[in-house]
Amino acid sequence: MVKKRICIILICILLFGVNIWGGKQEAHSTKRTEFSSESRVSRVQTYIPRSPIYITNDNDLNNSFPGKGTMDNPIRIEGYNITAPSGDMISIHDTTFYFRIANCLLNGLASADRGISLWNVKNGIVENNTVINTFNGILLVSSNDNEILNNTCYNGLTIRESKNNLISRNIVKNHTQDGLLLDSSDNNIVSHNIVTNNFEGIAISFSSDNNIIANNTVHHNPSYGIYVKMSENNTIHDNTITDNGNNGIYLTGSETNTIENNEIDNNGANGIYLENSTRNVITSNIVSHNSQNGINLQTSAQNTITNNEVEQNSRTGVQLLESPVNTISDNFVHGNKRDGINSADSNCFDGTFVNNTISHNSGWGLLFWESGNNRIIDNNFVNDGLGLWGYQYEDFLQVEITNNNVNGKPILYWQDVNDKTVPSDIGQIILLNCHSIIIKDQNIEYASTGITVAYSSNVLISENTLSDGVVGILIYNSSSSSIVNNTLDNYNWDAIRVSDNSNKNRITDNIISNTAYGAAISLGGEKNTIAHNSINNNFYGFYLGWAQNTNITGNTLEGNTYGMTLNEASDNQIFNNTIQNGGEYGVGIDIWQGGERFSTNNTISYNTIRNTAGYGVIMSAKSQANTVEYNVFTGNNDGGVQATDDGSENVFANNYWSEWTSPDTNGDGIVDEPYTLDGTANNQDESPLTSPDPILQSTSKKPASGWTTLLVLLSLVIIRSWKKSRSKLA
Questions:
Q1: Are strands 684-685 and 675-676 parallel, antiparallel or unpaired?
Q2: Using omega within 30 degrees of 0 as the cis cutoff, is the peptide bond preceding 663 cis?
Q3: Which residues pair with 580 in a beta bridge?
């Protein structure tokens, strides 16, 4: 008896286990069916051919097809093959009975209007149908409380002026307009659909409010993935939006929407783009590998961007343009090809940037360009940093910059501080309206801008090592400061940048190398001095834009693509420098001719320019009245003519040209024939020297320290005048 009971118990347990296992298998199978694609077409293998169906009221519906019109026993329109060259193949108007359109094949022969259209109906289920070759696949107008399920719908699915509908698990594709459109429709659920190869994927437009767009796959649509226009309180969550031709999600003129937990990848423009849209929440999305910015706000205020992963986008991770009072918090912004987060334009103000992790972006980690009055708190930068930039004091002035760090070191932000030394082991330094500050013995690496000095004076930056960022040292609207004995290496843009309105600064005895696109030293302002620096393997060696009365002396420039560039720069003295083994040119004046001003009255003298792949000196059409004299030109331009002049009134005199050293029949040290330059000016050096020795001897000592240089200069002038007088007599 006991054995019999035990056997019965074991059999029950076994049967219960089999049921559980079978239930799990069924649930698993069901889940797989939900997310399959082409298999979810009509499950009927054979169809009943018939003509189009047109229903105008409940009685018409009830009298035409089986079923009682109740929830438990809906009227059934099932299993038909309808082919029609025009009109709608199934059209139902003004009904309230429960009905089901299922397992039909509807072929419009490329000319019919719609496969299924519902007008002012409710309680319908449209399920497992295949609609092909129509202008619009399925249309609902003024129809509420319907379900559109598991259909394969070519040429679009449109919901217009309709509420409380469920649109789920459909395949919508190959429409030349919006794939799945909600137009003036509220409180609908659009879920688990596959929307592909339409012009736009899912569109929500014209006061379509309080809809839920969830768990859809939207991909390979040539325009936007999901487009929201002038609509509010919609929730877009858990969608996969990939490989669309334009923005992944685009909101325009829309408020209080939530974009949450979506995967937005590899779209042709921005991942998420807001235009003229306010008070939206963008949270917990993965936004990556998009062709422009990850998240882009244009003229959009009071939005919250939080807890997103924004990485590997081709431009900036999070871009704000003319968009004030936004909150950017708790995001992970990594590996974007430009800036991590960029707040640009004077209308970007009162923003809050809190607790973001910003890592390994190619530009600035967090850049404020003409964007003041923000709160920047508790951000963690990894191989990135903070950038402040602009054109007036207010652009640099922030409400708060506290508790931020770069690679575990603090960001120091001083405003209105005087007569202090910066403490050691700082990750990044920003000074605003500070005076008599010493920055010394710092090792700053992988910070976007190592040291920023704005609206300050008498700052000493000495014996620091800075490397691996966008800009090493920025001096903006600051004067009488010194940058001395620093080593700067491997910057994407300028290693040292001194802006316009920065005067009487000294940049001396620094070693600067390996700028990728900018200059070792980029200089504006007046009466600055650049002396005795070693400038190696940079894109530009020196770039002088709008610089005046600058003294550049005793520097060595080697292996730079462009040696020295003067652009709209005048009255500068370039004296006793060595420029060698460069790329495009040694010294170029107004190579970029877009500005309005000419470069005039610059003096280039006693320099050695050798082994440049291009010309030793280039004078463009906007070069006027510049003087090039007593220089040594050796081996430039691959053995060809070593200078070119397209300008006017430029003077070349008493230079040594290595390929033009004879004849000198009278032994006066000047070649008998002038040296003819390339260029439209038809200019010449009338007195080329046979040897570099007089020039090299005069530069072996400091140029203005004694009488040697003066005597050499006088001798050369006398020789030149004597030769000219002899030629006239002859």
A1: antiparallel
A2: yes
A3: 558, 610
Residue 244 contacts residue 201 (beta carbons within 8 Å): yes
SS (H, E, C) 116-137: EEEECCECEEEECCEEEEEEEE
- Tokens, residue 642: 């070593």
CA gap 300, 324 in Å, rounded: 7
pLDDT digits over 2-50, tens only? Answer: 344 434 433 343 333 333 333 333 332 332 233 333 333 444 458 999 9
The residue assigned the tokens 């286990």 is 17
CA distance 2 to 78: 57
CA 310 to chain centre: 12
**What is the spatial distance between Cα 398 and Cα 379, in angstroms, rounded to a whole number?**
15
Residue type present at position 430: I
Asked whether the beta carbons of 134 and 106 are under 8 A apart, the reply is: yes
**pLDDT range class, residue 345, cuts 50, 70, 90:** confident
What are the Cα distances from residue 116, in Å, to 77, 132, 173, 690?
12, 11, 16, 93
Altogether, the residues listed in the chain come to a count of: 730
Give the burial class of 231: count Cβ atoms within 10 A of its Cβ; 0-12 exposed, 13-18 middle, 19 or more buried.
Answer: buried
Q: How far is CA 481 from CA 392, 414, 466, 522, 548, in A?
A: 19, 17, 18, 15, 17
pLDDT tens, residue by residue, 405-439: 999 999 999 999 999 999 999 999 999 999 999 99
The Cα angle at residue 353 between residues 352 and 355, in degrees rounded to 5? 130
SS3 338: coil
Mean residue pLDDT across the chain: 90
d(CA 139, CA 183): 11
Fill in the amino acid letter for 30.
T
Per-residue pLDDT for 726 more than 70?
no
CA–CA distance, 367 with 376 (Å, rounded to integer): 11
Q: Where are the beta strands (DSSP E) in 601-639?
A: 603-605, 608-610, 615-619, 623-624, 627-629, 632-634
- Quick one: how many helices (H) and strands (E) in the chain? 5, 80
Q: For residues 681 and 689, give the distance between their C-alpha atoms in angstroms, rounded to a whole number.
A: 22
